[in-house]
Structures are given as C-alpha cells and as structure tokens.
Design brief:
By secondary structure, the chain is α+β, with helices and mostly antiparallel strands. It has helices at residues 9-19, 67-80, 106-110, 131-140, 157-170, 174-183, 219-226, 237-241, 253-264, 277-284, 355-367; strands spanning 3-4, 26-33, 36-44, 60-61, 190-192, 249-251, 268-269, 272-273, 288-291, 298-301, 306-307, 320-323, 329-333, 338-344. Strands 1-3-2-14-13-12-11 form a seven-stranded antiparallel sheet, with helices on both faces. The chain has a three-stranded antiparallel sheet with strand order 4-6-5. Strands 7-8 form a two-stranded antiparallel ribbon.
C-alpha cells in the first residue's frame, strides 16, 4: 500500500505514468517534510523478467547517491572523534602523502579535488572488492592534476579513501558506524555493505542502453569511467557485501529520503541531533564551484554533497543533493524541511538530472 497525502495526488499520477512508459521496470519515490511522509510510492517489477513485483521493502543499489550519506556519516566524527576536515588526509593516513598529496585536506578530497578520479595505469580489477588494498593503491599513486587546484568527479575512488579516513579516525568502518549509530536505532533501511540476509530483497538492475555524454574525452575522464579497469564488477554478492562508500549503498526510497532529511533539518533526525551546527557547516559549506574535469558541468561541490546550481534538486537555490548512476537521487531543501529519495532499477544514461526524478521532484513542489 502506498501513501499519498491529500493534495499530492499529482505526484502519484506522474509516478504511475512513468512506470507505464517504454523501458520502465520498477521504482520507488518518497518525499518527507518535517518528519511526515507526503508520498511514499513503489511499483513495477524488481526483476528484468518482470516476474517479481516491487515491494515496499525492495532494496536497490543507489550508486553515487550513496556519497552524501557517507559524507554525513564521516562528518559525525567531527563531534565524536575530533575529526578536522581542514587537516591533511596524510595526518591520519601518512602513506597517502606520496607524490605530492601530503597537503591535500580531507575537505578537498571530499570535494573531488584529489586528482585521483581513477587509475591512469591498469590495476587488477579484483582490488575494487578489497577496499583496504584499493585504498593502499590510491595512496601509492601520483595524482592526475595538482591536488587542491581543480575539481574532477571521483565516481568510485572517492569512497575508498573516505572509508580509510573513517577507519583511521574512529577505529570502525563507515558502513558499520552508519548501521549501528544511525540506521538500526531509527529503523532506516540503508546499508553500505549489505549483509547476506538482505540480498534476497535486492532488485535486479537493467543497465542503460547507451553511455552517458561526458563531453570531449580526456585521459582523466577515461580513467574515471571508461578504462577497462575503471570500476568494480557490480551486482554480485561480494560487491554487495563489501563497503564502498561512494557506490554501493542499498536502500529503499524512503530510507534515502529519511537520511537526506538530516540535511533538510540542519543536522537533526526527527528530534535527535546527528550533527552539531559546526559539523553541519563543515559538511555543507561550498568547497569549490567551477567546471568539472570529469563531468561536463560547472559543479558546486560541498564536502561530499552538491549544491543546486543546475536546478536538478527543485527550485530552491540552496537545496543540496546527489544523483547516482542510472537515475537514483537524494535531495534536501532546508528552507522547507523537505527531503526526497528516488530509486529505480531501470537505469538511464543521464549523469545527473534524470528526467524521471526531476519530474517527480517538480511535482512535489507544485503540490506544496
């Protein structure tokens, strides 16, 4: 049974129409305002054979929409463990300082300024499923540009360094801390590192029919996305199990909206403070705002989450959010106390601003 608050029928109508369009499969969409679900929708099919209905508890990988959740989990260490985002990564992880990376700050890494969006030379792709080994490989590599001088989206490498920073600062893994401290106590169905007991709920993914438009190709863009060794083998059981804070969050749409509500509530979840004002400010302040070396956009990077200069997160210029490969999206509007999660297993080729998510977000605003 889906939930639609009075006056938000337009959102449900758009969601249902999208599921009936050519190429659609399954999806979920949830919008929460000040702790109240305005819409909580799910439908379609959880498998490519269309034999399994998408259920309320169907989980789906949200790829890079994992990043803002990982970022807020890391930012909690500002309050609990004295983490300083302005400190060099190498102050916690000395090996990372090789090849001129010694001055790169944690905040600069979080805002995609590290110069390691991928690997210029081949690596064993099995390393992607061994986060400590992949992190060590990152530490040993030379950056593709001078760290801290430009932003270039790090689609997957971002999370391996974030996970290593988290572990060195706290002694725990990021996925375990997210589950133990935030998700389990509040019954939020979001995992970074999915236990085997939940694998049966995961939707099958239908890959995009064509590649995204990255603009003129460069070695940096190839390393980030296109080289044969540029990404893990996604979708298998081992990929689900390991913690990849940049790329393999598994959740429902409601869970994504619940966690993004921490951004909408300036660091609070319902009545509980998750981030102090100081930590929330460090997480969300603008870190870099210029043309990206990997994505074909001018991007407003915060410490792991994006500003809304492209208008993909609704009409409020101060909204924050992030898209994931194939269309998933989490966003938050602090002025309205609004957070939204969109998940799907029918991936599109859009890098950001998937038209399905944009239409549903705009429909919510039209009903407010």
């Amino acid at each position: 049974m889906t939930r639609v608050a009075a006056g938000f029928e337009r959102v449900a109508e758009a969601f249902t129409r999208q599921l009936g369009e050519s190429g659609a499969l399954g999806a979920g969409f949830c919008a929460i305002q000040n702790g109240v679900a305005l819409v909580d929708l799910w439908g379609g099919h959880a498998d490519r054979a269309r034999s399994r209905a998408w259920a309320q508890d169907t989980l789906v990988p949200v790829y890079s929409a994992t990043k803002p959740i990982a970022a807020l989990t890391l930012a909690r260490l500002i309050d609990t463990d004295g983490l300083d985002l302005e400190a060099p990564v190498a102050s916690l992880w000395p090996e990372f300082g090789a090849h001129g990376k010694d001055a790169l700050t944690i905040a600069e890494w979080l805002s995609h300024q590290g110069g390691l969006p991928g690997f210029a030379e081949p690596i064993d792709t099995a390393l992607w499923l061994d986060p400590p080994a992949l992190a060590a490989e990152l530490a040993a590599r030379a950056p593709m540009w001078a760290p801290g001088t430009a932003n270039g989206y790090h689609p997957t490498t971002w999370g391996y360094a974030v996970g290593e920073i988290f572990k060195r600062a706290s002694g725990r893994t990021l996925g375990a801390a997210l589950r133990e401290d935030v998700c389990a106590p509040h019954d939020i169905e979001f995992w970074i590192g999915l236990p085997d007991s939940e694998h049966g709920r995961v939707a099958e993914i239908k890959r995009p029919s064509r590649l995204p438009d990255l603009g003129p190709l460069t070695p940096i863009k190839r390393a980030a996305f296109l080289d044969k060794w540029a990404s893990p083998d996604r979708g298998g059981a081992e990929w689900r199990r390991v913690e990849i804070p940049s790329a393999n969050g598994h959740c429902t749409a409601r869970a994504l909206a619940q966690l993004m509500s921490i951004y909408a509530q300036s660091g609070a979840y319902e009545v509980e403070t998750m981030l102090s004002a100081r930590a929330f400010g460090a997480l969300t302040q603008r870190r870099r705002f210029q043309d990206d070396l990997v994505l074909p956009f001018k991007l407003d990077w915060r410490a792991g989450v994006l500003g809304n200069n492209l208008g993909f997160f609704g009409p409020d210029a101060d909204a924050l959010g992030h898209y994931g490969w194939g269309g998933s999206c989490g966003m938050a509007d602090g002025a309205r106390g609004l957070s939204i999660g969109y998940v799907t297993n029918a991936q599109s080729h859009h890098l950001m601003g998937d038209p399905r998510a944009v239409e549903l977000i705009e429909a919510v605003y039209a009903c407010l």
